[in-house]
């Protein structure tokens, strides 16, 4: 078990260096992040898709500003003790903007950030209509991100969306360039067959640790944990399962309420169970110790 004296960023690096892969379910707000931690996972992934849906009820097509994303990252990081890996989209501009983005995310307390090579405004990696910046522009962004971090343990993940735009070959070339620029992990987004996933894992073996996006309902085939381990992925993110589950649960409750006039409570946590979940006993302890 990892020591409690280690910072979340140092713990994240230890976890990524383990036998792996590290599993990081998605969280779209502080409550979902607490649920991920309480379920026993060692890391939380702040999903941009889920953040957009939860904050403004809209699709992930580049509508949120960097400030809105950082604010959500700050709330999530403050709610849990496990490392938080946060989506930082394109860095919200050019390499100079990336410098400030990295500094703000670092101040927010995240342990890792993810940057991608799409044109801004970006799209969810499993949507059509994506466009890419030039590879050398993204390489400069990665170099800027690495240089901007004040804590060398902050993990920088470089994502390429080239598979859907220019093909697997270009994605591999871009990934190698991003690794040369200093990226800690490489994330080749949205391969559409298991053969392509294997080709990516094989071609980038030894270049840098790899991220697999187990995008629920997305374009990448849903591999088993055993297969992902066999292919050598260091990090697996499950970005929107919690969001989809919450949506299904809310819709079911509202449909029953509409039909019956009262909410169905069977299967739901009780009021006391929920207040325990969000930390009321700890708050009451603090009140006893410090409040009049």
What would you note in describing this structure?
The chain is α/β, with parallel strands linked by helices and 292 residues long. It is built from 12 helices and 8 strands. The chain has an 8-stranded parallel beta barrel, surrounded by 8 helices. Helix 4 packs parallel to helix 5 and helix 5 runs parallel beside helix 6. The longest helix is centred in the last third of the chain and has 20 residues.
Summarize this structure as a short list of keywords or feature phrases.
12 helices, 292 residues, alpha/beta, single chain, 47% helix, 12% strand, eight-stranded parallel barrel
Compose a concise summary of this entry.
With 292 residues, the protein is of the alpha/beta class.
Count of separate DSSP helical elements: 12
* Main beta sheet strand tally, sense and closure: 8 strands, parallel, barrel
Distance between the termini: 39 Å
Structural class: alpha/beta
Helix content: 40-55%
What pattern of helices and strands is seen along the backbone?
HEHEHHEHEHEHEHEHEHHH
- Report the mean per-residue pLDDT as an integer: 95
Largest sheet, order of strands side by side? 1-2-3-4-5-6-7-8
């Amino acid at each position: 078990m990892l020591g409690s004296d280690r910072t979340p960023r140092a713990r994240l690096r230890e976890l990524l260096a383990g036998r792996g892969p590290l599993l990081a379910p998605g969280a779209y707000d502080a409550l979902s992040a607490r649920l991920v931690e309480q379920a026993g996972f060692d890391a939380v992934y702040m999903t941009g898709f889920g953040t957009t849906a939860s904050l403004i009820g809209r699709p992930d097509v580049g509508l949120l500003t960097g400030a809105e994303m950082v604010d959500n990252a700050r709330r999530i990081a403050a709610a849990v003790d496990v490392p938080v890996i946060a989506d930082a989209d394109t860095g919200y501009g050019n390499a100079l903007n990336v410098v400030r983005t990295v500094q703000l995310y670092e101040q927010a307390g995240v342990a890792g950030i993810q940057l991608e090579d799409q044109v801004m405004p970006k799209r969810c990696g499993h949507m059509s209509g994506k466009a890419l910046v030039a590879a050398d522009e993204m390489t400069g962004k990665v170099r800027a991100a690495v240089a901007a971090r004040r804590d060398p343990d902050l993990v920088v993940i470089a994502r390429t969306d080239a598979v859907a735009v220019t093909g697997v070959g270009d994605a591999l070339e871009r990934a190698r360039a991003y690794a040369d620029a200093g990226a800690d992990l490489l994330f080749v987004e949205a391969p559409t067959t298991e053969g392509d996933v294997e080709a990516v894992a094989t071609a980038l073996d030894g270049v840098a640790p790899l991220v697999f996006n187990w995008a629920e309902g997305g374009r990448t085939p849903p591999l088993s944990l055993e297969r992902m381990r066999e292919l050598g992925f260091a990090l697996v993110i499950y970005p929107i399962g919690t969001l989809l589950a919450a949506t299904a649960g809310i819709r079911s409750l509202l449909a029953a309420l509409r039909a019956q006039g009262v909410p169905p409570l069977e299967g739901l946590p009780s009021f006391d169970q929920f207040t325990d979940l969000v930390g009321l006993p700890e708050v009451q302890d603090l009140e006893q110790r410090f409040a009049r």
